[in-house]
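User: structure tokens for Response regulatory domain-containing protein, please.
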Amino acid sequence: MASRPDSTTTRLALTIATRGHALDAAYLLTDACARLAGVNAAGVMVSAGADVVAATDPGLFDAFQAVEAGRDLVAPAEQDVTGPATAFRELSTRADRWPRLARFADTHGVSTAYTVPLRAFDVLAGTLVLLCRREPEPTADDLDTAHGWAAIAAAGVLADAAADALPDTAPHLTRHRVFQDQIVVWQATGALAARRGEGTRAALAALREHAEDSGRPLAHSARQALAWTSETRDAFTGQGRDTRVLLVEADPFTGRCLAGLLSEEGYEASTTTTVQAARAQRANPPPVAVVDQLLPGAADFGRDLAASGTLVVALSAARSGQAPPGAAALLRRPIPPAHVVAAVRDLYPVARERVPT
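Assistant: Done. Predicted tokens:
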């Protein structure tokens, strides 16, 4: 699908007026450029360190950064930062001039690379890299469009970092701010991928969709994903979509009864009779867990679950004492199974609206 310059330009321009959107501008820029004819992938490098902070193909740009190919692209002797774009063609045959870039190109089938300066307020904030594997290559008009987008993105990046300190300190602050935000986004992407049981590409897409829907910076959504509160969980999974409840109950009969009642309420219950067996679910923790405190290791397991964002209902036979660390609710035995289900429902309701019959 062809890119719409007006839409991209407008969205990029809005990043200038809103603080905290520097990383969003970088991702928007790469997405738009990757849709230009002949461009297979796009990435943004910040500062002279050639740190890639946004890319449409993270795997390809991870390899690009691993061999430090970006250092060949940003060398002052090889790039005219005043022009709209600089072309690096026949890369695999130019090991004498660009050794790192040639090695990368030969391995990954890249024929041509273009660099477009992210320059605003007479300050070079970074470099846009366009990687091409096939013909036809981008036209002059396409490169002019990318150059215009890059200028707007650079203005947003620099203004977000230090609008009152240009041009002396902005590049350093920009690199620090954007790269620190990127670290948070990487962490949140990995955590979200594990919780949703999906790949990092899909998790990053969900993260960026959340940021766009909420009208907040990508780093803000990433911090929310790492905090993983009940509100955040609903925002990323959809209220009522993740209906899993883990039952860690020593008595198999009681566990089956609870599972049946929870199923009638719309939950997807899984049961186990030991903490050791339940630990296998820590990689993708459920929204709610009911844990029998008489089981060995139950208190520590409940605390670990709570730290990952799970709401823990502790079942205890003790007549006194406080709830275990991290427990959202404490129920004292003997207790009817219906009361346990009610506690789960109060903590994490999943009832859906029903059409009257």
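User: Anything notable?

Assistant: The first helix runs from residue 5 to 17.
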